[in-house]
Amino acid sequence: MTDIVDEIRQAYAAVGIRLDQPATYGAYYRLLCAGCGRMVGNVGDKLLPSMAQDVVTAQFDLYASGLLGCACGHQRDATRRLDPDRWAAAQK
Amino acid sequence: MATHEPLNEMNAIEDAEQRGRTDTWPLWRRQYAKGDPLPKLACQVSRPTYRFDEGDVLPEEYESLLLRMLRHEGERAGNKSFLGLMGTCLDLAEALFPPHAKLLKAEYVAEELKHAIMFHRLAVGLQEDFVLRDVPYAHYAFHLPRESWADDAFFHFLVDLNGAFHARDWRESSYVPLAKMSATVERDELGHSEMGYLFLTEICQQLRGKELVQRLLGKWYAAALDMFGRSDSPNVPKFIHWGLKSVGNADIRAAYKSYVDRKITELGLDLPDERANRRFL
Fold this sequence. Notes:
The structure holds two protein chains of two kinds. By secondary structure, chain A is of the alpha+beta class. Chain A has helices at 3-13, 51-58, 60-64, 74-82, 84-90; strands at 17-23, 28-33, 39-44.
């Protein structure tokens, strides 16, 4: 596993999303809801350093408000635990 | 054509495409019916006129630059990474798309596979050991997370449009096989971009959808502008000299930006700062 993939895995774990095994010849990974296992997207392994964290951080409000993430609500719950103040602000 | 007459390879593809036409698909039709949708990309510097066809002996530097360009292009049947990218598109359509959009996405994949055959033929005529070479997409725009229908719509609107602009530039290519297929590739890629734009238009009909699209725009806009590379790339003058490109990275990026800015504004969205989140200026 490359450092970038590790970085992607850690960034997404914080908001309740886990990386599946590499798919399609190794360059891409499915993003799975850590709560129910449903596919919520995909990502490739050629992001630049720190990019995964930047994207997930920028999308915090979208997970918190339910605009992104699984219909089961797992990412909403995860972001609420991660930063309750920012989560509350995102509800407005 | 007689009913039982066998179709040759490309006629069979054309026939299949004709049968796939609907009021919506292919989306390039309406755009070209209104006139040429893309800006002209005319070379502004004096340069020699070169013209090379399949089977010609190519100058070493020319061949190297042409192969480099085709490696970046990627849509080639023997390129496992291209097939992998198509796999991710199917995954997303299955998991995240509303039912009515899935068929359009399947048409898109079918058309990209047609390009893969066209570029396969070009590769066979150019250098046989390139035919099966796996070339992973190097640019981060092909690897950005797609976590919603809107993300995927942006991918098509902006990334496929990059392909359309490059294909437009190939109309004047000194490599004849590339020039010959450029109009088809340009037209199709423009249609793929329009598919993404159609999806974005639909998503923006609802307030929450529009909010999502506005928030995701920053991620995709920066990547889209970065896809044209650095404005001072040292290889560009060589590409222009050999007739493999007409204009530099900054010029084609500016033409592209003007096109997408107009479309984004028509969606009622705010344009991001063009320097925000950029990695390649």
